[in-house]
Amino acid sequence: MPLPLINDYKAAIANAKGRFATLDVRPHLDARCSPVFLAGNFAGVFKMVTGEGEHVAVKCFTREVSDLPRRYAAVAKFCRTAQCPYVVPLRFLPAEVFVTSSVAPHADYAVVTMPWVEGRGLGAVVQILCQRENAPALAGLTRAWSRLCLDLLQRGVAHGDLKHDNVLVGQDGALKLIDYDSMYLPELKGLASTMLGGVNFQHPRREVRHFDGTIDHFSMLVILLSLRALTFQPDLLKRHHNGENLVLTKSDFTRPDSSDLLRQWALSPDFHVRDWTEHLIKAAKAPMIRIAAMEALLKAAAKVEAVPAKPPTKRLLSFFS
Fold it and tell me: Where is the Protein kinase domain (predicted)?
């Protein structure tokens, strides 16, 4: 069934009174008295105000997502019970907002609600830190990113679309993930991915059939390596960031041997940049999207400092041990 356009939802939200089945909300308006919202590939997220004056996010879907109720029932349960510090609680309301549309039936449509999380996107924070050449803060962000990724891996779950736009950094430096449309949870095993994620963060061979706890590996490494490289070369962001990436792009993954950035990083004075570049090149060429060493790389990243790292000292095994 076709779904309403974002402008249809915008018109409904602008006249919210009587539109919602259970929610008591009104739109948060911008300077032009229009509803504040963010548009994505599958949905629009509106900033709303409850009757108690709290801000909430209301997500309205513009493209059909297969098994949407099943997926969001599992995600809502995980966010409510897992005590994961990197997700926010949400609710899936299957027939909540009444919308009139020229392309879809006039009907009540599903929404997802969650608290409105204040914070800057990871990309915006990285841009500020690079402009200030704040290497200690970039190293701290790298450590925080590694802890987030390790938490997901150890739970056997995956976000499915890790990129700079889907990670928020709070004023206290805490990271939060948003946009759970493509999240993998063990109880969703057997389904297909709803999307393939941002091309500048994903393995070039990722397909919808890939839907398990390893689908985040490549994007985890892309962000990890980018943060580490920017710690020592913050000027790279100005030269390579295009709004849809951090510094690397899809072409670096499809043709890694021709990538100037990867060639440069392979000679970095920092051991981690060299090592993670080698792993990224190997992963990009591999037919599998899983990276066997991902957990070990993240554990090393959790200890990085704002100075170039030396190779780890290899222990000599004694014949008498």
Answer: 31-289
Residue 282 CB-half CA count within 13 A: 14
Q: Is 293 helix (H, G, I), strand (E, B) or coil?
A: coil
What pLDDT was estimated at residue 316? 41
**Which stretch of DSSP H or E encloses residue 58?**
strand 55-61
Question: Which has the closest alpha carbon to 226: 310, 146, 119?
Answer: 146
Helix (H, G, I), strand (E, B) or coil at 109: strand
Burial (CB count within 10 angstroms: exposed 0-12, middle 13-18, buried 19+), residue 87? buried
Q: Go through the domains of the chain in sequence order and give each one's CATH number.
A: 27-115 (3.30.200), 120-301 (1.10.510.10)
The radius of gyration of the chain's CA atoms, rounded to the nearest angstrom, is 21
Of 152, 154, 170, the C-alpha closest to 162 is 152
Paired tokens of 260: 């100037």
* Cα distance between residue 118 and residue 158, in whole Å: 23
- How high is the pLDDT of residue 1? 75
- Residue 312 pLDDT level (bands cut at 50, 70, 90): confident
- Neighbouring residues of 228: CB distance < 8 A, sequence distance ≥ 6: 142, 270, 272, 273, 276, 301, 304
